[in-house]
Design goal:
alpha/beta; 5 helices; binds zinc ion
Length: 138
């Protein structure tokens, strides 16, 4: 999570969210910060970019055994993408009551109708992750 916090502010105009993907052996495969403002891409969330980079690095869309660590509770798009990528474990920092799709507004990743459900750990280093967001919006 400290590594995700470190990549959260790579683009100064974007909401500071950082994501890191670890391979099954625990080694870092990819990382990203939000780049929506930077690139003008509405899907340029940190999680999406990190998933794309990890899949490109592995040459494989299935990220089974991988862990996604992100500083903020994922939105519906990112929660859907991490299920589609078969991410095995999701670790997130701050809760996002306005758009969160891993327990706050919806729970996209643990819907029993889906055939893939990652293991989820929320609230990791929450004070640091929440402070990053508060400071940005202040
Ligand atoms: Zn998102």
């Amino acid at each position: 999570m400290r590594r995700a916090l470190a990549v959260a502010s790579t683009s100064p105009d974007d909401v500071p969210v950082g994501a890191v993907i670890l391979g099954p052996d625990g080694a870092e495969l990819a990382s990203a910060g939000n780049e929506r403002e930077l690139t003008g891409d509405p899907t340029g969330h940190a999680e999406i970019l990190a998933i794309r980079r990890a899949a490109a690095r592995l040459g494989e869309w299935r990220l089974e055994g991988c862990t996604l660590v992100v500083t903020l509770e994922p939105c519906t798009m990112c929660a859907g993408a991490l299920v589609l990528a078969r991410i095995s474990t999701l670790v997130f920092g701050a809760w996002e009551p306005k758009t969160g799709a891993v327990g706050s507004l919806w729970d996209v990743v643990r819907d029993s109708r889906l055939n893939h459900r990652p293991e989820v750990y929320g609230g990791v280093l929450e004070p640091e992750c929440a402070r990053l967001m508060r400071d940005f919006f202040r």
